[in-house]
Specification:
Helix content: 25-40%
CATH superfamily of the largest domain: Aldehyde Dehydrogenase, Chain A, domain 1
Distance between the termini: 73 Å
CATH topology of the largest domain: Aldehyde Dehydrogenase, Chain A, domain 1
Radius of gyration: 25 Å
Strand order of the largest sheet: 15-16-17-14-13-19-20
Number of helices: 16
């Protein structure tokens, strides 16, 4: 069976692993590969390689780093379908969806190619007599990323291109469930001319994560995943003196007002609720229907669900694939059970869904609940599956307060044709990313991605300008060159003028 190894110091790490994990094809339910699980010693080897590479990469001219980024960008684009196929075979999402994921990662690489401009500082002349002040931004050193299974190419690309362009070296710990896209990306980066040791990839579980969080030579950690693990990563990493950005879970609401374009709202709800089988941190999982909106909207959603093609991600025309593992599929099905038991109206039931010829695959059909209330588990928990809940409210203000009371604040949306209602929403809603007649408000790479409340731990969002700030530290230089007007010794506090 194929063994997916670590990538350390510019090549595959050939030592036989002490432990391995299974990598499945979610469409068939079969084990496709095994992945090496890093020991503490192997994480240390990767960190040492990154430490050794840092001085040379830090001192590489920024324009030379830029050229490597340009070559990497071209290689990712030319191998886009290869990366996407690996995503589909290990994660399960459809091939078209996987291609879209790589394209969104590519956007961040393209942003990082502007690194000479992005690292420019400020300069103030003559702040005092013969004194100038300016700022520079310098890399941190060795930094690390811990990334989730749901975007095995895109989320790592939100991290390491930014960090590396800034002059850092990087240790990536991708999800052990779908590790191959990161391996191919590392190979392409090496082909682009990235020096050995600048990007290293180690696979594994909590052993590797804990070693990253405690290693004294790692200066910063980026993380994307569930809220409990994000909190653990943040407290443990910052407790060990590291800079940490930890993006966490979500329960994304979409308000539909009675004046909304219901056809648009239905298209958006189905696309955002069931795309990638609901395994997106920006998926819409709750529709808050105000007034009589639900009675008009739900039949339209039902009609669209009935026409969805669910099947293996590489199959032509497939719109939704399987979930990542059998355990996760069963967990999501358990949430559907709990929704029924709690008294929610099950409009469309996906529990008994199967695909002919792929009966052992991890498939679950699109599921729709109506009359969901805030005390139900299906409302309170992040299900991370193709389960969409409709909550009914009489008043728009009640819908806004429902969202603001939720502990998460990742993404949200409102559908309306009333400009005043939209303005009220964007002003009052306590969520980090807001869509107006747009269900998944993921910003482009020249902005930054990040939620509020328990959807993020740390002071920095990811990629964009916030990414530059996170992966560098500012330095202020105040300079005076000798001149004939030297005033001699002065023990007083420095004064301007």
């Amino acid at each position: 069976m194929n063994l997916i190894r670590h990538w350390i110091n510019g090549k595959e790490h050939q030592a036989d692993p002490e432990r391995t994990g299974d990598v499945y094809d979610p469409a068939t339910g079969e084990i496709a590969s095994q992945v090496a699980f890093a020991s503490v010693a192997e994480v240390d080897i990767a960190v040492q390689a990154a430490s050794d590479a840092f001085p040379g990469w830090r001192d590489t001219p920024v324009t030379a780093r830029q050229k490597v980024m340009f070559r990497f960008r071209d290689l990712v684009e030319s191998h886009l379908d290869d990366i996407a196929k690996l995503i589909t075979t290990e994660h399960g999402k459809t091939f078209d969806d996987a291609r879209g994921e790589v394209n969104r990662g590519l956007e961040v690489i393209e942003f990082a190619t502007a690194i000479p401009h992005l690292l420019k500082g400020d300069y103030s002349e003559q702040v005092s007599r013969s004194v100038d002040t300016y700022t520079i931004r310098q890399p941190l050193g060795v930094v690390a990323g811990i990334t989730p299974f749901n975007f095995p190419a895109m989320v790592p690309m939100w991290m390491y291109p930014m960090a590396i362009a800034c002059g850092n070296t990087f240790v990536l710990k991708p999800s052990e469930k779908d590790p191959s896209p990161s391996m191919l990306s590392a190979e392409l980066f090496a082909e682009a001319g990235l020096p050995d040791g600048v990007l290293n990839v180690v696979h594994g579980d909590k052993v590797a994560v804990d070693r990253i969080l405690e290693h004294r030579d790692i200066k910063a950690v980026s993380f994307v995943g569930s809220t409990p693990i994000a909190r653990y990563v943040y407290t443990t990493g910052s407790g060990n003196g590291k800079r940490v950005q930890a993006l966490a879970g979500a329960k994304n609401h979409m308000i539909v007002l009675p004046d909304a374009d219901m056809e648009l709202a239905a298209d958006s709800a189905v696309s955002a609720g069931y795309g990638s089988a609901g395994e997106r941190c920006m998926a819409i999982s709750v529709i808050v229907a105000v007034g009589g909106a639900a009675d008009r909207l739900i039949p339209l959603i039902e009609d669209r669900i009935a026409k969805l093609k669910v099947g293996p991600g590489l199959e032509a025309g497939a719109e939704m694939g399987p979930l990542i593992t059998r355990e996760h599929r069963d967990k999501v099905a358990g949430y559907i059970d709990s929704g029924v038991d709690a008294g929610a109206t099950l409009v469309t039931d996906g529990r008994d869904f199967s695909v002919k010829g792929y009966e052992d695959g991890f498939f679950l059909g699109p599921t729709l609940f109506d009359n969901v209330t805030r005390d139900m588990t299906i409302y309170q928990d992040e299900i991370f599956g193709p389960v969409l809940s409709v909550v009914r409210t009489d008043r728009y203000q009640d819908a806004i307060e429902l969202i603001n009371d939720n502990p998460w604040g990742n993404g949200t949306a409102v559908f309306t044709n009333d400009g005043g209602a939209a303005r009220k929403f964007q002003n009052e809603i306590q969520v980090g990313m807001v869509g107006i007649n747009l269900p998944i408000p993921v910003p482009l790479a020249f902005y930054s991605f990040g939620g509020w409340k328990e959807s993020i731990f740390g002071d920095h969002s990811i990629y964009g300008p916030e990414g530059i700030a996170f992966y560098t530290k500012p330095k202020v230089v105040i300079s005076r060159w000798p001149d004939p007007m030297h005033r001699g010794v002065d023990l007083g506090f420095p004064q301007h003028g």
